[in-house]
Amino acid sequence: MNETIIAVGNGGYNLAADLIATGLFPDARLIVCDTNKKDLEKNSVNGAESFLLEKLRGKVKSGDTTFVEEIVEKASDSVIICATLGGMTGSKYAPLIALEAILKGKFVCSFFSMPYEFEGEQKNKRAMNARMQLIVSSNLAVQQNNDRLKEVQSLGLNDIDKPLVDTIKSAMSHKSLAELADTKNNDSLQAYIPEEYRVRDMPLVWIRSNTYHGISDDERKNIFNLY
Fold first, then answer.
1. Which pTM value belongs to this model?
2. CA dist 163 → 156, 183, 189 (Å)
């Protein structure tokens, strides 16, 4: 399938660039979107499309997908969303893009990282809400828990996205994205995570298949609006 990778925010762009560098998605189009004009100008050089986003205030709701309609219209039927959660841009816009895409019948993968604990309660709470919104709006979600990076000694300062990218590479060496999303037993998916990233009781990386397969659009939006 022809994928569209949507990079949300500067952290999302860095993850998207690392993902593209693997060669797993040679024909993918890149859409870059950001609320920061300077970051957008810098990163959009490598994108097919770019969008300057409005800075949204307060909690986003399902009705706010009007802000991302044009982005989703430009995407193919297979969408990969890359974001870092905790900040305003990724936490608000990545879930909205995922929701709008899945409501339009597109296949949605969300690849995202959670903030460090030291980044504060507000950022972590915002990330937790966005995480749930992304999971309910995605066919496949891969989450990285950044607070666990310090427990993997082989990782350097420039390897922040490496566990997430390595996990996607490992999983796709066994199954396609669609097959991963169709896996009924979420626990079985965790076997694709490289062993060095399976950190104690709470893993550094976690994979979720289509947890909300079969629910109605209204149910999806209602769950979305709880967070």
1. 0.95
2. 11, 21, 15
